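Researcher: Can you fold this with iron/sulfur cluster in place?
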Amino acid sequence: MSAPPERGPTRTYSGEAIEVHWEPRLCIHVQNCVRNLPQVFKAGERPWIVIDGAGADAVAATVEQCPTGALHYRRLDGGPQEQAPDETVVDPRPDGPLFVRGRLRIVGDEGGVIREDTRVALCRCGGSANKPFCDGTHRRIGFTTG
Ligand code: SF4
Ligand code: FES
């Protein structure tokens, strides 16, 4: 049996209807969440997630737009949990990582599963310290895709 998928330290923000899990090591601060739902996701504030700032449906929809898998949620109100999409889609970002969506299983050098997720950002610049995941280094080193 392979080792369980690795999960980094995760912070949990709990409300009555939904809780949100944030894995900082996967967050590359592209801020989709902050742009989509600023009444909940507040860059630079502590706590940066104000879980009751919007309804659970809106929070869930925004979490599902997080391209890196840094955000996940669990509905506590009987609402639908996130479903893996039927298709796998790879979206190469200009000057950045590969955003991948689907029913994903990432395996390591020795074949063990290191992550199962619906959304990941894979390093394309070669500079990440958290390979195979993007850690935002592409911006620092000025990586370009032409
Ligand atoms: S959308 Fe995801 S990766 Fe982007 S800032 Fe929010 S949590 Fe981080
Ligand atoms: S593509 Fe983001 S760190 Fe390599």
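Model: Folded with iron/sulfur cluster in place. The helical segments are 32-36, 56-63, 137-140.
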